[in-house]
Amino acid sequence: MSDMAASASITTPPHEVDECRGVLRVYSDGSIWRSSKPSFNVPVNDDGSILWKDIVFDPVHDLQLRLYKPASPSSPKLPVFYYIHGGGFCIGSRAWPNCQNYCFRLASNLQAVVISPDYRLAPENRLPAAIEDGFMAMKWLQAQALANNPDPWLTDVADFSKVFISGDSAGGTIAHNLAVQLGAGSLDLAPVLVRGYVLLAPFFGGTVLTRSEAEGPKDAFLNLELIDRFWRLSVPMEKRRITR
Protein backbone atom coordinates (compact mmCIF):
# COMPACT_ATOMS: atom_id res chain seq x y z
CA MET A 1 0.00 0.00 0.00
CA SER A 2 1.34 3.44 -0.93
CA ASP A 3 1.78 6.18 1.66
CA MET A 4 -1.10 8.09 0.06
CA ALA A 5 -3.44 5.06 0.16
CA ALA A 6 -2.41 4.30 3.73
CA SER A 7 -3.13 7.88 4.76
CA ALA A 8 -6.54 7.77 3.04
CA SER A 9 -7.47 4.52 4.80
CA ILE A 10 -6.63 6.07 8.14
CA THR A 11 -8.46 9.35 7.65
CA THR A 12 -11.58 8.05 5.85
CA PRO A 13 -14.40 8.01 8.41
CA PRO A 14 -16.42 4.83 8.73
CA HIS A 15 -19.70 4.76 6.80
CA GLU A 16 -23.01 3.08 7.57
CA VAL A 17 -23.44 -0.33 5.95
CA ASP A 18 -26.62 -1.56 7.66
CA GLU A 19 -29.53 -0.06 9.59
CA CYS A 20 -32.53 -1.62 11.31
CA ARG A 21 -35.64 0.24 12.41
CA GLY A 22 -33.65 3.31 13.42
CA VAL A 23 -32.37 1.59 16.56
CA LEU A 24 -29.36 -0.26 15.12
CA ARG A 25 -26.63 1.02 12.82
CA VAL A 26 -23.64 -1.01 11.65
CA TYR A 27 -20.55 0.77 10.27
CA SER A 28 -17.82 -0.22 7.85
CA ASP A 29 -15.21 -0.43 10.59
CA GLY A 30 -17.29 -3.01 12.47
CA SER A 31 -18.55 -0.60 15.11
CA ILE A 32 -22.16 -0.77 16.28
CA TRP A 33 -24.57 1.93 17.41
CA ARG A 34 -27.72 0.80 19.22
CA SER A 35 -30.32 3.25 20.46
CA SER A 36 -31.49 3.15 24.06
CA LYS A 37 -34.98 4.08 22.85
CA PRO A 38 -37.46 1.37 21.75
CA SER A 39 -38.86 1.04 18.24
CA PHE A 40 -42.40 1.17 19.63
CA ASN A 41 -43.12 4.44 21.41
CA VAL A 42 -46.16 3.42 23.46
CA PRO A 43 -47.04 4.12 27.11
CA VAL A 44 -46.53 1.43 29.74
CA ASN A 45 -49.91 0.35 31.15
CA ASP A 46 -48.87 -0.40 34.72
CA ASP A 47 -51.96 -0.15 36.95
CA GLY A 48 -50.42 -1.95 39.94
CA SER A 49 -52.40 -5.16 39.49
CA ILE A 50 -49.22 -6.95 38.37
CA LEU A 51 -46.01 -6.93 40.41
CA TRP A 52 -42.70 -7.11 38.59
CA LYS A 53 -38.96 -6.93 39.07
CA ASP A 54 -35.68 -7.57 37.23
CA ILE A 55 -33.17 -10.32 38.02
CA VAL A 56 -29.69 -11.02 36.60
CA PHE A 57 -29.80 -14.62 35.37
CA ASP A 58 -26.43 -14.69 33.60
CA PRO A 59 -23.77 -12.53 35.32
CA VAL A 60 -21.11 -13.56 32.80
CA HIS A 61 -22.94 -11.75 29.98
CA ASP A 62 -24.86 -9.37 32.28
CA LEU A 63 -28.22 -10.68 31.06
CA GLN A 64 -31.41 -9.93 32.94
CA LEU A 65 -34.94 -11.26 32.95
CA ARG A 66 -38.11 -9.58 34.10
CA LEU A 67 -40.48 -11.40 36.47
CA TYR A 68 -44.21 -10.69 36.67
CA LYS A 69 -46.92 -12.03 38.95
CA PRO A 70 -50.48 -10.98 39.89
CA ALA A 71 -50.68 -8.81 42.99
CA SER A 72 -53.74 -10.83 44.07
CA PRO A 73 -53.26 -14.30 42.54
CA SER A 74 -56.27 -16.53 41.99
CA SER A 75 -54.44 -19.61 43.37
CA PRO A 76 -51.66 -20.29 45.89
CA LYS A 77 -49.49 -21.69 43.11
CA LEU A 78 -49.41 -20.37 39.55
CA PRO A 79 -48.04 -21.83 36.31
CA VAL A 80 -44.87 -20.30 34.86
CA PHE A 81 -45.02 -18.80 31.37
CA TYR A 82 -41.84 -17.74 29.57
CA TYR A 83 -42.16 -15.00 26.97
CA ILE A 84 -39.10 -14.42 24.76
CA HIS A 85 -39.23 -11.16 22.80
CA GLY A 86 -38.72 -10.84 19.05
CA GLY A 87 -36.62 -8.46 16.99
CA GLY A 88 -34.85 -10.50 14.32
CA PHE A 89 -32.16 -11.42 16.89
CA CYS A 90 -30.83 -7.87 16.42
CA ILE A 91 -33.11 -5.54 18.37
CA GLY A 92 -35.64 -5.68 21.21
CA SER A 93 -35.57 -5.95 24.97
CA ARG A 94 -37.60 -7.24 27.90
CA ALA A 95 -37.82 -3.56 28.93
CA TRP A 96 -39.44 -2.28 25.72
CA PRO A 97 -42.93 -0.96 26.60
CA ASN A 98 -44.74 -3.18 24.07
CA CYS A 99 -43.07 -6.23 25.62
CA GLN A 100 -43.90 -5.10 29.14
CA ASN A 101 -47.55 -4.39 28.30
CA TYR A 102 -47.90 -7.83 26.74
CA CYS A 103 -46.43 -9.48 29.84
CA PHE A 104 -48.82 -7.53 32.07
CA ARG A 105 -51.73 -8.97 30.08
CA LEU A 106 -50.29 -12.49 30.12
CA ALA A 107 -49.80 -12.45 33.90
CA SER A 108 -53.31 -11.06 34.44
CA ASN A 109 -55.29 -13.10 31.91
CA LEU A 110 -53.44 -16.37 32.43
CA GLN A 111 -53.00 -15.92 36.19
CA ALA A 112 -49.41 -16.97 35.77
CA VAL A 113 -45.88 -16.04 36.72
CA VAL A 114 -44.40 -14.57 33.54
CA ILE A 115 -40.67 -14.61 32.88
CA SER A 116 -39.31 -12.45 30.06
CA PRO A 117 -35.57 -12.95 29.49
CA ASP A 118 -33.19 -10.87 27.42
CA TYR A 119 -30.58 -12.50 25.22
CA ARG A 120 -27.40 -11.38 23.49
CA LEU A 121 -28.11 -9.49 20.28
CA ALA A 122 -26.53 -9.68 16.85
CA PRO A 123 -24.44 -8.65 15.04
CA GLU A 124 -22.16 -8.37 18.09
CA ASN A 125 -23.26 -11.86 19.11
CA ARG A 126 -24.35 -13.97 16.19
CA LEU A 127 -26.36 -17.17 16.48
CA PRO A 128 -26.41 -19.52 18.33
CA ALA A 129 -25.66 -17.06 21.19
CA ALA A 130 -29.33 -16.10 21.61
CA ILE A 131 -30.40 -19.75 21.73
CA GLU A 132 -27.75 -20.52 24.33
CA ASP A 133 -29.06 -17.61 26.43
CA GLY A 134 -32.60 -18.96 26.21
CA PHE A 135 -31.35 -22.23 27.66
CA MET A 136 -29.49 -20.39 30.42
CA ALA A 137 -32.74 -18.62 31.35
CA MET A 138 -34.33 -22.04 31.79
CA LYS A 139 -31.41 -23.30 33.87
CA TRP A 140 -31.83 -20.25 36.10
CA LEU A 141 -35.39 -21.37 36.84
CA GLN A 142 -34.14 -24.85 37.65
CA ALA A 143 -31.55 -23.38 40.02
CA GLN A 144 -34.32 -21.50 41.82
CA ALA A 145 -36.35 -24.70 42.14
CA LEU A 146 -33.36 -26.53 43.66
CA ALA A 147 -31.89 -23.74 45.79
CA ASN A 148 -31.71 -23.98 49.57
CA ASN A 149 -32.32 -20.24 49.80
CA PRO A 150 -34.31 -19.33 46.69
CA ASP A 151 -36.02 -16.02 46.00
CA PRO A 152 -39.39 -16.30 47.79
CA TRP A 153 -40.82 -13.59 45.53
CA LEU A 154 -40.82 -16.30 42.86
CA THR A 155 -40.82 -19.64 44.64
CA ASP A 156 -43.70 -18.88 47.01
CA VAL A 157 -46.09 -18.66 44.09
CA ALA A 158 -44.51 -20.53 41.13
CA ASP A 159 -45.57 -24.08 40.23
CA PHE A 160 -42.40 -25.53 38.72
CA SER A 161 -44.31 -28.54 37.41
CA LYS A 162 -46.36 -26.36 35.04
CA VAL A 163 -43.97 -24.40 32.83
CA PHE A 164 -44.65 -23.16 29.31
CA ILE A 165 -42.21 -21.54 26.88
CA SER A 166 -43.34 -18.96 24.35
CA GLY A 167 -41.83 -16.37 22.06
CA ASP A 168 -42.63 -14.30 19.01
CA SER A 169 -40.56 -13.92 15.85
CA ALA A 170 -36.92 -14.48 16.89
CA GLY A 171 -38.22 -15.40 20.34
CA GLY A 172 -40.39 -18.07 18.72
CA THR A 173 -37.31 -19.46 17.00
CA ILE A 174 -35.51 -19.61 20.36
CA ALA A 175 -38.54 -21.40 21.87
CA HIS A 176 -38.51 -23.88 18.97
CA ASN A 177 -34.83 -24.64 19.49
CA LEU A 178 -35.41 -25.11 23.22
CA ALA A 179 -38.13 -27.64 22.41
CA VAL A 180 -35.70 -29.56 20.19
CA GLN A 181 -32.87 -29.33 22.75
CA LEU A 182 -34.90 -30.23 25.83
CA GLY A 183 -36.99 -32.95 24.21
CA ALA A 184 -40.10 -34.55 25.66
CA GLY A 185 -40.40 -34.19 29.42
CA SER A 186 -37.47 -31.73 29.75
CA LEU A 187 -35.65 -34.19 32.04
CA ASP A 188 -32.50 -32.04 32.12
CA LEU A 189 -34.50 -29.34 33.97
CA ALA A 190 -35.99 -31.47 36.77
CA PRO A 191 -37.85 -30.63 38.93
CA VAL A 192 -38.93 -28.01 36.38
CA LEU A 193 -41.39 -29.62 33.97
CA VAL A 194 -42.07 -27.94 30.63
CA ARG A 195 -45.64 -28.80 29.59
CA GLY A 196 -45.75 -27.02 26.23
CA TYR A 197 -44.46 -24.46 23.76
CA VAL A 198 -46.24 -21.57 22.05
CA LEU A 199 -44.52 -20.30 18.90
CA LEU A 200 -45.86 -16.94 17.69
CA ALA A 201 -44.81 -16.30 14.07
CA PRO A 202 -41.35 -17.84 14.60
CA PHE A 203 -38.51 -16.36 12.55
CA PHE A 204 -37.86 -19.21 10.13
CA GLY A 205 -36.57 -18.98 6.58
CA GLY A 206 -35.90 -21.35 3.72
CA THR A 207 -34.05 -21.48 0.43
CA VAL A 208 -37.32 -21.06 -1.50
CA LEU A 209 -39.48 -17.98 -1.03
CA THR A 210 -42.93 -18.49 0.41
CA ARG A 211 -45.87 -16.82 -1.34
CA SER A 212 -46.09 -14.10 1.29
CA GLU A 213 -42.36 -13.41 0.94
CA ALA A 214 -42.49 -13.29 -2.86
CA GLU A 215 -45.74 -11.33 -3.21
CA GLY A 216 -45.88 -9.34 0.03
CA PRO A 217 -46.00 -5.54 -0.25
CA LYS A 218 -42.61 -3.87 -0.06
CA ASP A 219 -43.97 -1.20 2.27
CA ALA A 220 -45.16 -3.78 4.83
CA PHE A 221 -43.98 -3.30 8.41
CA LEU A 222 -41.95 -6.52 8.13
CA ASN A 223 -41.04 -6.96 4.48
CA LEU A 224 -38.66 -9.39 2.77
CA GLU A 225 -35.83 -6.84 2.56
CA LEU A 226 -35.90 -6.26 6.32
CA ILE A 227 -36.22 -9.99 7.07
CA ASP A 228 -33.14 -10.75 4.98
CA ARG A 229 -31.26 -7.89 6.61
CA PHE A 230 -31.94 -9.36 10.05
CA TRP A 231 -30.87 -12.77 8.75
CA ARG A 232 -27.62 -11.39 7.32
CA LEU A 233 -26.75 -9.68 10.60
CA SER A 234 -27.63 -12.55 12.93
CA VAL A 235 -26.36 -15.68 11.18
CA PRO A 236 -22.65 -16.53 10.81
CA MET A 237 -21.46 -16.28 7.20
CA GLU A 238 -20.79 -20.01 6.85
CA LYS A 239 -24.34 -20.92 7.89
CA ARG A 240 -26.34 -18.51 5.73
CA ARG A 241 -28.62 -19.98 3.11
CA ILE A 242 -27.03 -19.85 -0.32
CA THR A 243 -30.11 -19.07 -2.42
CA ARG A 244 -33.23 -17.02 -1.90
From TrEMBL:
Spans through the membrane: none
Recorded GO MF terms: hydrolase activity
Domain of life, source organism: Eukaryota
Residues of the Alpha/beta hydrolase fold-3 domain: 82-240
Pfam families the UniProt entry points to: Abhydrolase_3
Annotated catalytic residues: S169
Coiled-coil stretches noted in the UniProt entry, renumbered to this chain: none
SUPFAM superfamilies: alpha/beta-Hydrolases (SSF53474)
Record-linked InterPro entries: AB_hydrolase_3 (IPR013094), AB_hydrolase_fold (IPR029058), Carboxylest/Gibb_receptor (IPR050466), Lipase_GDXG_put_SER_AS (IPR033140)
Similarity annotation: Belongs to the 'GDXG' lipolytic enzyme family.
Protein name: Alpha/beta hydrolase fold-3 domain-containing protein
Organism the protein comes from: Gossypium tomentosum
